[in-house]
Amino acid sequence: MATLGMLLGATRHRVAGISISQVRATFQRGMSGYQFESLAVTRPRDHVMQVELNRPEKRNAMNRAFWREMVECFQAITAEPDVRAVVVSGAGKIFTAGLDMGDVMSSLFVEGADIARKAIRLTPTIKAFQDTFSVIEKGPKPVIAAVHSACVGGGVDLISACDIRLCTQDAWFQIKEVDIGLAADVGTLQRLPKIIGNDSLARELAFTSRRFEAEEAKQMGLVSGIYPDRAAVLEAALDLASTIASKSPIAVQGTKVSMVYSRDHSVQEGLDHVALWNSTMLQSEDVVEAVQAGMQKRKPEFSKL
Ligand SMILES: CCC/C=C/C=C/C(=O)SCCNC(=O)CCNC(=O)[C@H](O)C(C)(C)COP(=O)(O)OP(=O)(O)OC[C@H]1O[C@@H](n2cnc3c(N)ncnc32)[C@H](O)[C@@H]1OP(=O)(O)O
């Protein structure tokens, strides 16, 4: 039988897409380990982390550091035993201006004469860009986007990978990619139609780059709440994250995993998946604690993961 030491030593073992060595590094991380060039990471509430896009002077345009650091940051958060919910926000005047066109465009051009060889070399780069947002969806902890003012291009890809979206009254959104000659390729086209449940509207917005405002975003189901300003939307997002964090992390994370799985599978496959999941997770101490706390009219206490 494998000992814990053997398991921890085996870097080929992976949990939620991350290696055991990364998990171990994260246990030792502490907040000082969350130092990034493009992100500011804080713990504003118990069990809640806030990841802020932090290049306000460049309108939080997504530079090369950002595309790499989001993956590092969310993998670390997935492995944090005491974090139960995450808020994503933007520093400064707007949420984000999307792709940093000065810094990133050059990495999308590949040297060489043969188009097929160039394409094969470019494919992993595009997939790595996709991972930057897929990491949010693949992680089991709920992520709430708090959008203020502009959310452009890659910003829509980012928030589409989040679980819940709130915005300010002055928020506006734009699937901007066709305006810079691209088919959006990091998640909007795949996730947004399922979020809003209106394929016709999703296509209209993606084909035209039409800017749409907070009210329309709410009407279509992209956001679930509108708040007067940046401070108010952040407060609401943090309150929501705290409420989620007060629940059993086993129950909440199972719920996210099941909802993401069910979105992409038949009803029967989703039911089979959650039956298998719960055949283990129903045996959690959290079930006993949640039921007892309810009967005793007290707040439940759930231990860290
Ligand atoms: C495989 C790739 C996958 C990803 C694809 C993603 C694609 C996309 O995201 S497409 C969308 C690209 N973004 C844009 O087209 C938006 C461009 N920016 C704007 O329209 C305006 O900046 C905005 C309306 C968002 C805000 O206007 P505001 O007046 O508040 O700011 P500015 O004076 O325009 O900008 C201030 C400084 O920020 C720099 N900046 C803004 N956006 C970007 C950007 N996307 N990339 C790089 N830099 C950006 C701007 O140059 C100013 O810098 P400085 O001149 O040094 O002060």
Automatic annotation (TrEMBL):
Subcellular location: Peroxisome
Keyword Transcription regulation: no
CDD domains associated with the record: crotonase-like
Keywords assigned by UniProt, alphabetized: Acetylation, Fatty acid metabolism, Isomerase, Lipid metabolism, Peroxisome
Pathway info: Lipid metabolism; fatty acid beta-oxidation
Coiled coil regions in record: none
An example Gene Ontology molecular-function term: delta(3,5)-delta(2,4)-dienoyl-CoA isomerase activity
Taxonomy, superkingdom: Eukaryota
Functional description taken from the UniProt entry: Isomerization of 3-trans,5-cis-dienoyl-CoA to 2-trans,4-trans-dienoyl-CoA.
Name of the protein in its database record: Delta(3,5)-Delta(2,4)-dienoyl-CoA isomerase, mitochondrial
Lineage: Eukaryota, Metazoa, Chordata, Cephalochordata, Leptocardii
Gene transcribed to yield this protein: LOC118425825
